[in-house]
Amino acid sequence: MDDIKVWGDVATGLQEKTALSMGVFPNPVEDVISLSNINTLSTIQFYDAMGKQVLSVTNPKEATLDVSNLKAGVYFISTSDQNGKHASAKILKK
């Protein structure tokens, strides 16, 4: 499982570690990817190696996503929560 961490600014203006905790597995993935701790996520976006958005999910309710329609290759997952914190991960699609 890959853990995603995010850095965020706090009210003091100093930067502190703030974890946006989300697990992504399995990696590499074949057909279905599982995400843990999605309760706070407002968007999940997948980008191919060229930076083109290939999948977007708003207010995800399920902990699994069907990625069987994606071609084999490297993809980047970008997530954000209701507070505007962002995180990203890299996955390999078989």
Please render the helix and strand layout as text:
Blueprint: E1 2-3, E2 6-9, E3 15-18, E4 23-25, E5 32-36, E6 41-48, E7 53-58, E8 64-66, E9 73-81, E10 86-93
Antiparallel strand pairs: 1-4, 2-3, 4-5, 5-8, 6-7, 6-9, 9-10
Explain what you see.
The structure is a single chain. This protein has one domain: Immunoglobulin-like (Sandwich). Helix content is 0%, strand content 55%. The protein contains no helices and 10 strands. The chain has strands at residues 2-3, 6-9, 15-18, 23-25, 32-36, 41-48, 53-58, 64-66, 73-81, 86-93. A 4-stranded antiparallel β-sheet has the order 1-4-5-8, with no helix packed on it. The model has no long low-confidence stretch (mean pLDDT 82).
Please report the total strand number as a whole number: 10
Low-confidence stretches: none
Output the helix-strand order.
Answer: EEEEEEEEEE
Overall geometry:
globular
User: Reading side by side through the largest sheet, how are the strands ordered?
Assistant: 1-4-5-8
CA-CA gap between termini: 17 Å
Biggest sheet overview? 4 strands, antiparallel
CATH topology: Immunoglobulin-like
Our count of domains comes out at: 1
Strand content bin: over 45%
Alpha plus pi helix count: 0
Helix content: under 10%
Structural class comes to: mainly beta
